[in-house]
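not sure who needs this but someone in the group chat was asking about Polymerase nucleotidyl transferase domain-containing protein from candidate division CPR3 bacterium 4484_211 so here u go. i didnt clean anything up, its just raw.
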Amino acid sequence: MDKKLSEAIIKTLAYSDIFDFPLNPQELYEYLEGYPLDSPKLISPELINNVPQIDFLDGLFFLKGREEIVSLRREKQKWTKQKKAIAQKVAQKLGLIPWIKMIAVTGGVAAGNAEEDHDIDLLFITASGRLWLSRLLEKISTELMGIRRHPGNHAGEKAKNKVCPNMYLDSQNLKLPHHDLFTAREIAQMKPILNRDQTYEKFLTSNSWMKEWLPNWWGNKLKMKSEKLKIKRRKTQSPATGRQSSVLNFFEHLAKKLQLNYMSSKRTTETITETLLMFHPDDQRRKTIKKYRQKLHSLGLTPTQCNLN
């Protein structure tokens, strides 16, 4: 077997091993790090004969000696299904907010790796110039529904099945700032539960950098969605008149001012720009990449350059 392919397989399973998550053949093909394959059929159980560092059980690949994570994945499926259903109901209600263009489930729930007492991470994309107004209305709505996770409640009964909106993007700038393996995997795993005006497809197209990390996922999923974006155009809402736009701009400015004032005493490692809000106080990205590097080192492999800026 090609040495580079063998290393790509080990690296891909090593990354998923951080989350105690074995991969089925299709997932291993799509998430294969930096190595394009002509067909998913090339990923088969026979690989274990050529790559001694991996094993295969009950339709799942994993690193040698990690058989216990196979049953863990099975156990987590029911929690994932339950939390996805909750997220879908929340999205249906938040869809009444006209400036929310996309809602996607991210994190462990999106990956099919949810813990029973964990929350549900959500990503929002809003209409251009309506990021802060959309977030304010979303926050009020989820608070009234009693479904929003509060700061400090990272796990346990207070976080269980609550939604955690941790990223908001303005549709005028959909390119994410970090171009590394962690971000590429998060994008590939996310599950859109509301998608207006082909926003999900536009989001993927704006993040074409990820094809360097996940070429098979890109080829398998994005080509199809790019074609859809080219040939299928939904009717969009009529733009606001000058007077309506001025009124909405006033409320957008007010919503931004109110929320920034509220956040001022609580800021930690959040990212806040004109078109992006990222609420990751624990900075999971850096922690994951650090663990990934350590795991590869233990396996005698050199990680692909991961930007941590």
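also The beta strands are 54-57, 60-63, 100-106, 120-126, 163-170, 191-195, 271-272, 276-278. if thats useful
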